[in-house]
Amino acid sequence: MGLAELARRVGMLLRRRRFDRDLAEEMRLHLDLRAADARAAGVPPDEADAAARRRFGNATVLREESRDAWGWRWLEDLGKDARYGLRGMARNPGFTLVAVLAFALGIGANTAIVSVVAGVLLRPLPYADPDRLVTILHGGTGPTAAANIYAWRAQCASFEALGAAEAWAPNLAGLGIDQPEKLPALRVTPDVLPLLGVPPALGRTFVDEEGLPGKEHVIVLGWDLWQQRFGGDPHILDRSVVLDGVSYAVIGVMPRGFKFAPFWVTTAQAWAPLVLGPKAGDFHWSTLRPFARLKPGVSVAAARAEMAAVTARLEQAFPGTNRNLEIVPLEEKVVGQIRPALLVLLGAVGFVLLVACANVAHMLLARAQARQREIVVRTALGAGRGRLVRQLLTESLMLALLGGGAGVVLGVWGVDLLRALEPVDVPRVANVSVDATILATMAGVSILCGVGFGLVPALRATAVDLSSSLKESARGATEGARQGRLRGLLVVSQFALALPLLVGAGLMIRSFAALQAIDPGFDSEGVLTLQVSLAGTSQVKAGRPETFYPELVRRVEALPGVASASAINHLPLAGDMWGIGFTVEGEPTPADGDSEVATYRAVLPGYFRTMGIPILRGRDISPADDARAPHVVVINQKLADEHWPRGDAVGKRISGGMDQETFTIVGVVKDARQHDWAEKLRGEIYVSVAQARRYLDNPGGPFAYMTLVVRTVGDPAALAGSVRAAVRDLDPAVSVSSVSTMTSVVARATSRPRFYLTLLGAFAGLALLLAAVGVYGVMSYAVSRRRQEIGIRMALGATRGDVLRLVVKGGLGLALVGVAVGLVGAAGLARLMAGLLYGVTPADPPTLVGVAFVLLAVAVLASVVPARRATRIDPMTALRTD
């Protein structure tokens, strides 16, 4: 009788004895209970015992049916599997820790990014029926004029409501506020807040009459402003606040978390009625952002078709006022630009999770191989293959749940880290959280992955030929070829998945380097910036700004540590970008609405020197360029090249502005970045503040503030307090806000690509680490299983160099196959990333070659350690058999 047959019979005998013992015990209990019930009913003892035996003669069947009906057997067996798995995990803490950590890293990365995707892309906007909300913009970005709002309301039947908003930055005072502060706010037509369908937490919103001229000034506050500046006063509705020196009655407070507008002036914390009446016939002063709600059943396509017909008629009547208008769903406007990047990141973390699963699958396969003797013996004792597969799957699920739990914790930390990165261009990221839906999703993913990475090792481990396996176990045979191929396939898949991530990170590095190499046109080092607003102060009287700003600059320049100071209406990269239509003297006069538009800047003397912008030809704006002097401008190189490519622009004349004033060009300066770091440069016109009548005659609204720029000889941030004090000494009613260094402004301008680079780089590094661990594990295990082979080779004369090359060649071969397969995925990912890149093509050869080299180098390094261990094998020891 062979060893296998003996083991089988012993197992059958043990199972039968255990079954008979359990059956006898259960029959005794049933019989005793039924007999006791019969005796209690008055049946004689002998008859009661006999009836119980007749009724429960087939006690085995009833016992099995009862247990199966309630699932007790399944639960008992599952509990046994879990307890056995826990004991096995406790006996191998190193294996358990590495497997749980590898899977936790994958789940953690996915938890963080899935939370961001769900919070930014999938969560609907917090308004009623947000899919019916749209915005109407010139070219998808530009504002419109008041006359258009009236015309669209009258002629478009697709809208249930249509209103408009205008940016507003008043100075907030009153109610115990000592120092006036600039408040981000909006003026809105009375129908804007109601069309959102969000009721206020306190009070009410506006009624139609409050949008008419001459009505009482009222205001609706945001929740955060109400809490932080007014202590959540429940009687706030009976009080007033002072904005720009005007008293506003508080009529409502919006609920916690309310944000409007969601893509523009997103920090607004107060809303006042916008009076359009005086601008009803103005088709040219475009400062309004329209918002509308579609009627039920009206599609965006239908609204676009109707709007196209309406705007065509308006454009014919008023040229240049209704061109390139787009109706954009509000949600698309909020997340449209960020969606491709987040989907790329979601795909990236999916790759990381697959790499982690392949790593854990390899570890389980190696552990199952090490447990081959146990599996063979249990099979010989009668355990079915299904029973063994269930045991191994239970263990893999336990690993997955432990790793998933740890990964969720890492994911929560990851979400906090994403917020700390402050990606200013990623909407709604501040509200991202790991909620119950994310937790349930990650639990499901963990279970699915647990089955996924545990099933193949379980099936492989239990597919044994009992007789041959017992013989091989007795003599310590090496692993089969199928196991080796499967392990190699897992490593190949890890490299194939890691390569696209590394290519994506490499492309982002190259793109970010190209962005960093952009010349901003100014020197950002050592420059302090802050906004100074005259709104609501005595300085707004006609002519006062003309003396206030130069006096403020003189006082700031007198401070210790200040090299120079000046001011501009909108700081490059950090403020609005106004346009001014102009015509060039001597060139054909364009048709109405066809004037070329340049970026409009109003500056004080010394601005170019303070910002480090070189004057290429001509001169700077000077103090003599006041309201009484001929009007002059300085233009940038881009505008000079477009209109005077072969001559000198200095001395030439242009006409522009609403009043078509004539300006003489007195200087040409180097091109500077304007609104966006990577955008195409535009023509730019700098005028003297002293000749900008809107800043002098009626400095209200957007004309009430300037941005002070201060070049220092030391740390600019250290002088912020002194500059604030200088402003306060000149006029304590003037507010100071948006204090920052110019280097911080530049950093914020490049925050989005830096955000993508950080995440993709982290995911790629994680995938590379897991792939390296996979190669190391495969090579180490292969060496341990080939000890006899290596011993024979060395006994037959193989040198240590031969053994080293043999092992490294195996790891390098797996990496080469993985790289070849991964190049296909890398090409697809790179094409998806095309919109995120700057200065580099998706199929960038240096990136592809560099990433492939890195992966192969990692494979070699991961193979060297087990290879060196293989060279130290003693041939005599390796040739011994157990």
Q: Uncertain spans, ≥5 residues at pLDDT below 50?
A: 58-63, 65-71, 472-479
Radius of gyration: 38 Å
| Largest sheet composition | 12 strands, mixed
Q: Strand percentage, roughly?
A: 15-25%
Distance between the ends: 23 Å
Mean pLDDT: 80
Global structural class: alpha+beta
How many β-strand stretches?
23
What shape does the CA trace take?
elongated
The percentage helix is 40-55%
The number of distinct helices, counting runs of at least 4 residues, comes to: 27
How would you describe what is shown here?
The chain is an alpha+beta fold and 882 residues long. Helices cover 53% and strands 15% of the residues. It has 27 helices and 23 strands. Strands 1, 2, 3, 4, 5, 6, 7, 8, 9, 10, 11 and 12 form a twelve-stranded mixed β-sheet that branches. A hairpin with a 2-residue loop joins strand 8 (240-243) and strand 9 (246-253). Helix 1 (3-40) crosses helix 2, helix 16 (481-516) packs across helix 26 and helix 23 (751-785) packs parallel to helix 26 (845-871). The longest helix has 38 residues, at 3-40. The chain starts with a helix and ends with a helix. Residues 58-63, 65-71 and 472-479 have low confidence and may be disordered.
Write the layout of secondary structure elements.
Layout: H1 3-40, H2 45-55, H3 59-69, H4 72-91, H5 93-122, E1 133-138, H6 146-155, E2 159-168, E3 171-174, E4 177-182, E5 185-188, H7 192-196, E6 202-203, E7 218-221, H8 223-230, E8 240-243, E9 246-253, E10 270-273, E11 289-294, H9 300-317, E12 325-329, H10 330-335, H11 339-370, H12 372-380, H13 385-420, H14 436-462, H15 466-475, H16 481-516, E13 527-533, H17 544-557, E14 562-568, E15 578-584, E16 596-603, H18 607-611, E17 615-618, E18 632-636, H19 637-643, E19 653-656, E20 661-669, E21 684-688, H20 693-697, E22 705-712, H21 720-730, E23 735-741, H22 742-749, H23 751-785, H24 787-795, H25 800-832, H26 845-871, H27 875-879
Parallel strand pairs: 5-10, 7-9, 16-21, 18-20
Antiparallel strand pairs: 1-11, 1-12, 2-5, 2-11, 3-4, 3-8, 6-9, 7-10, 8-9, 13-22, 13-23, 14-22, 15-16, 15-19, 17-20, 18-21, 19-20
Helix pairs in contact: 1-2, 4-13, 5-11, 5-13, 5-14, 6-9, 11-14, 11-16, 11-23, 12-15, 13-14, 16-23, 16-25, 16-26, 17-21, 23-25, 23-26, 25-26
